Structure to design on (309 residues):
């Protein structure tokens, strides 16, 4: 294969078994602006005596990152798009009967092999785990932003594989049901972030220096920018008072397409930052809340369900 490489890009992902080997069958992801590169782990070797130059350097741990965004889409029945389902579980989420919840046990976490085809070249990271943000802005598509860390593999020449994408349209941030206890904020943008800290399971037996990557700590947060309300009276919401009191409140947001609902819930959301902003000529409260645990890995759930006929 000769000639220059283009910028037509396609992502295929494969779930891995506990040993880190891809399970048969790859799933296509409709990804936007994918970027995949090795980490800068070059080790400089300075002589230190008799010369101000360098000896031949060495490449250290062989890891890389892949970032991209994907639309929040369903399978048109009762679940997420199959590609999203795999990506969510590789961001430290356990999937049980259509409910995603955080998974702290490292040995139970899912890792992925991610192949990015760039019109003649295939780049890969494997043993990969990631961070997820779900971002919705008024009237626009709801997007899932991913950043995965994994073991870097040597790129290969490869043709673009056949593309297969579900015709299901993405969910929009419209007709949503958003509530914090009895408060229904008039927000223009909502972001739900897992806040994952992704690390490598170091292994001197492996050529890369890693066995796999995993999700260690997480800091689940929810940010939104509702119109500022009075402290008392009709429609009141004392955001500063809730923050000062350390109140924990139930958060819920329901999104939907024609067939499926996605419900995001945090039973104990606590404001940790309240700031003032503006949207046009309206004053807003820029709220950042952290989702607190009650009994283990229960600070956040994402549930999918079919809309009754």
């Amino acid at each position: 294969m000769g000639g220059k490489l283009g910028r037509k890009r396609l992502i295929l992902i494969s779930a891995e078994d506990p040993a880190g080997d891809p399970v048969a069958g790859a799933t296509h992801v409709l990804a936007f602006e994918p970027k995949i590169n090795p980490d800068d782990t070059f080790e400089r070797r300075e002589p230190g005596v008799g010369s101000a130059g360098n000896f031949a350097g060495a490449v250290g741990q062989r890891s890389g990152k892949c970032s991209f965004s994907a639309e929040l889409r369903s399978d048109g029945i009762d679940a997420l798009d199959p590609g999203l389902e795999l990506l969510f579980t590789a961001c430290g989420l356990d999937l049980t009967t259509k409910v995603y919840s955080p998974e702290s046990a490292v040995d139970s976490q899912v890792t992925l092999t991610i192949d990015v085809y760039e019109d003649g070249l295939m780049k890969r990271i494997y043993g990969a785990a990631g961070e997820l943000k779900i971002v919705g802005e008024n009237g626009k598509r709801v997007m899932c932003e991913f950043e995965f860390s994994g073991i870097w593999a040597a790129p290969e020449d490869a043709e673009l594989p056949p593309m297969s994408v579900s015709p299901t349209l993405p969910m929009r941030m419209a007709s949503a049901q958003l509530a914090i206890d009895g408060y229904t904020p008039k927000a223009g943008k909502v972001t739900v972030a897992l806040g994952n800290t992704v690390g490598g399971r170091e292994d001197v037996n492996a050529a890369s220096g890693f066995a796999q990557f995993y999700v260690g700590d997480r800091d689940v947060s929810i940010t939104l920018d509702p119109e500022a309300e009075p402290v008392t009276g009709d429609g009141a919401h004392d955001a500063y008072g809730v923050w000062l009191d350390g109140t924990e409140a139930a958060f819920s947001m329901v999104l939907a397409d024609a067939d499926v609902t996605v419900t995001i819930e945090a039973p104990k959301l606590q404001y940790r930052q309240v700031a003032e902003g503006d949207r046009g000529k309206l004053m807003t409260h820029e709220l950042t809340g952290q989702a607190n645990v009650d009994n283990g890995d229960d600070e956040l759930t994402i549930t999918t369900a079919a809309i009754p006929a």
About this structure: The chain has a mean pLDDT of 92.
